[in-house]
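Feature request disguised as a bug: please show the residue count (177) next to ABC transporter permease in the output. Example input:
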Amino acid sequence: MKKKPIYLWILLVLSALISASSLFGILGPVPSKEVLRASLSNSGSLTAQQIEDTVNYTYQVTAASHSIFNVVLIVLSAILVVVAFVFLVRKNVQFANYAYLGYLLLAIVGLVYSFVNIQDAIQLIKDDTLGLGIGALAKGTVILFMIINVLFLALVFYKMWRQQKDLAEEAEAEEVA
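Example output, currently without the count:
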């Protein structure tokens, strides 16, 4: 009896949720600096410089997330998740694994792109304390997602290796019989 690729179903559902939220994120417009400034001025706990730094940082990061390169990455990622689901439903696990590997590699490229954009946006922050806080949080988030993607990549490669090994053992057993 063949084992069901439950790991791939779980990974694809998680990836589909992430892709859907990313698609909805790029559909919205980039908010203007005035809108961002108005929403932050109501917080009351930030100084004028901190508000201006946060507005500049947020605007830069949001504008970068709506760049053509990032939009193409998000759309291709969503397409690869759908393709992987189609292959998985048709019980072609090998091609589903390949499509998911493509998705993971695009996700890693997207994370590197985000990391570079975050580094550029942090340069806009003049307040050292705010810059350190935002920088640490942003870098930590990117690093966490990078680790998760690499772990998913390792899991899929391991499962593919096990599937190939099982197929070789089955073929060897058939030759003996």
